[in-house]
Design brief:
The structure is a single chain. By secondary structure, the protein is of the alpha+beta class. The chain has six domains: 35 residues, no CATH class; 87 residues, no CATH class; 177 residues, no CATH class; 110 residues, Chitinase A, domain 3, CATH 3.10.50; 44 residues; 89 residues, Chitinase A, domain 3. It is 54% helix and 14% strand. The strands form four sheets. The chain has a four-stranded antiparallel β-sheet. A four-stranded antiparallel β-sheet has the order 11-10-13-12. α4 crosses α19, α16 crosses α18 and α20 packs across α24. The longest helix is centred in the C-terminal third of the chain and has 27 residues. The protein is extended. The two termini are 24 Å apart.
């Protein structure tokens, strides 16, 4: 009624004004707290030169966290700005041409095109969509089965008959079953779904009927007498969410067939590639690497003892093998700089640079310390190049997932490399620098002092007062304890730092060594404290904390270098933030759990 009266009052107003009032009334009645519209995913929150940071970029970063405060959301936005501005500065300074950027980007592209593109496509030949759907349907049931595993069919039939005649299945399993794991549980295997058991046994298990003991079945392990314990439905996710997992399981079940196919395909590649290896050069490379491993530089140690770090630059382009250069249909390759790098790599030669692509830094020592390891790496490099060429010709590079991956990897490598170029891989220092840093910051390296106390438990407060008074009068603690018949188990030795946040330590500050204070009430009764030794705060010798001081100095240097680099980036990269759009994005962002709750409320 009230809403009708309000509407009638404004009957003669303009249509525009009436619509405005109507919207306000509806907002009131339907519980809308704000008329502010959420950000568009593509709304630009900041520009960094020509690079744009959108609401979607911001929300993607926030999505990896749980509930965040507004301050934390702003900090995450600042990290996006910092990372993107470093990347843009890398582009401005030509960092995309640096060897590590090319190497890692090409490696990731090759791996993705082969494993997620060509290899996955080839494997589709072995598993049809109908097989996956049938597998999905079979997964909707789980069974629990008990079995007795024996070596011969005759013994299995004899045991089956005993069960039918009324003998206890549990006892027979304990007595006869070869499966010692389940025998002690009456043969019970536990619940399982289709695809988790061996052939023969699996088919029979899902055909079992309650209270019926079928004929024994044979598997690779022997003969099984089987009994159904339970059959229950399984609640699966929608088919599309389960599909890839089921596809992988079906592939594993056909591993032998797939291995045969890949071996044949690999042999065909070997024949067509017409590979010619330079054994002399391989031997020379191996000798150089062995020499480097025997006496690695500091840089090689920093890189997981990577022997290739110590190779002279001319080694990188040394040809170890030639093969028929693959023909690439360039119209199938996107016009991206990183794909240009990839095409340059597919030149019909295997160089040391190619070996660095197939052998990651952390395992290069294991690959290269034996001559055979170099030959194996060469073989992998050739196969990979030819697989990549085929993937390019079949158009995988044009698919959005590979474009997204290429953009992401390329950007990430430029970001990392520009920081390496300007901040260094490690911040080295001399012992003299550490010593100088220690002297300038000595106040940060005090031990705080410590107290050695005797903690004496007494029967009652008057006894505690007597001990304190007699200590004041100059008597020795040992004589007092003996006189009062206080045994050793009532006296504890405590050593505590003077800066410890404890009441007893705070009270002890007013006393000197040889004095006592108390009595004090404690959890276990009444206690008196006697100060045996009081060591005042002092500087910790550098020799004892050399590593800590070195780390502190290194971190200090990193902060200084980081500040210089930030100033350099800000000087050369134009950054503009749309504060209004950013604040709206922060306000409107809903964490995943909250979003679910709000959707439920809307439906209500």
């Amino acid at each position: 009624m009230e809403s009708r009266r309000v509407l009638e009052i404004f009957t003669n107003r303009t249509t525009k004004f009436k619509n405005l009032i109507l919207s306000l009334i509806l907002a009131t009645f339907f519980g809308c707290s704000s008329t502010e519209q959420p950000n568009s995913p593509n709304e630009v929150l900041a520009t960094i030169d020509t690079y744009k940071v959108t609401t979607q970029d911001f929300y993607n970063r926030l999505g990896v966290f749980g509930k965040l405060s507004e301050e934390r959301k702003r900090k995450e936005f600042d990290k996006i700005i910092q990372n993107k501005s470093d990347y843009v500065y890398g582009l401005l300074t030509g960092t995309e041409k640096d060897f590590p950027v090319k190497l890692t980007t090409v490696r990731n592209l090759k791996t993705a095109l082969v494993e997620k593109g060509l290899y996955k496509s080839e494997l589709q030949k072995f598993v049809t969509e109908e097989e996956i759907k049938a597998f999905y349907e079979k997964r909707k049931v789980k069974v629990n089965v008990a079995h007795i595993l024996v070596d011969t069919k005759e013994l299995a039939q004899e045991i089956r008959q005993k069960v039918i005649d009324g003998e206890d299945f549990t006892e027979l399993a304990a007595k006869h079953s070869k499966d010692t794991t389940t025998a002690k549980n009456g043969g019970e295997i536990g619940e399982f779904v289709w695809g988790e058991m061996v052939d023969g046994f699996q088919e029979a298990a899902f055909e079992l009927q309650p209270d019926i003991i079928p004929e024994p079945v044979q598997s690779a392990y022997g003969f099984h007498v089987m009994k159904l314990l339970s059959r229950n439905p399984v609640k699966l996710k929608p088919y599309q969410e389960e599909r890839d997992k089921l596809f992988d399981e079906l592939l594993r079940s056909k591993s032998y067939e797939i291995a045969e196919y890949l071996n044949d395909y690999s042999a065909k590649i070997d024949r067509e590639a017409q590979m010619k290896i330079d054994s002399v050069m391989v031997r020379k490379l191996h000798k150089e690497i062995v020499k480097n491993l025997a006496n690695p530089s500091q840089e090689a140690k920093d890189y997981f003892n990577d022997p290739t770090t110590d190779l002279a630059p001319e080694w990188l382009d040394t040809v170890l093998m030639t093969y028929n250069k693959p023909q690439i249909q360039t119209e199938q390759v996107p016009p991206k700089l990183y794909y240009n790098y990839l095409l340059e790599d597919l030149d019909g030669n295997v160089t040391v640079k190619d070996l660095l692509i197939v052998a990651r830094r952390e395992n290069r020592k294991a690959v290269f310390e034996k001559e055979q390891g170099i030959y194996d790496a060469i073989n992998v490099a050739v196969k990979q190049d030819l697989f990549v060429a085929r993937a390019l010709n079949e158009g995988f590079a044009q698919k959005q997932e590979f474009l997204d991956l290429g953009d992401s990897v390329f950007e990430d490598q430029i970001f990392k490399q520009v920081r390496r170029n300007n901040l260094g891989i490690t911040t080295s220092f001399t012992q003299e620098e550490v010593k100088d840093y220690y002297e300038k910051n000595k106040d940060n390296y005090k031990d705080g002092g410590w107290l050695e106390l005797r903690q004496i438990s007494v029967l009652e407060e008057i006894q505690g007062n007597i001990i304190v008074q007699r200590i004041k009068d100059g008597e020795k603690l040992e004589a007092i304890l003996k006189d009062l018949k206080i045994t050793d188990d009532k006296v504890k030795i405590r050593t505590v730092p003077q800066d410890a946040q404890l009441d007893v330590v705070q009270l002890a500050q007013s006393y000197q060594a040889g004095e006592a204070f108390g009595p004090l009430e404690a959890k276990n009764g009444i206690e008196v404290f006697y100060i045996v030794k009081k060591v005042e705060p002092d500087f910790i010798p550098l020799e004892k904390i050399k590593n800590k001081v070195g780390n502190d100095y290194q971190n200090e240097k990193k902060k200084i270098e980081e500040k210089k680099f930030r100033d350099l980036v800000e000087k050369n990269v134009k950054i503009e933030v749309n504060e209004e759009a950013l604040q709206k994005a922060i306000t409107n962002y809903v964490e995943k759990d909250d979003r679910k709750n709000k959707d439920i409320e809307k439906k209500k």
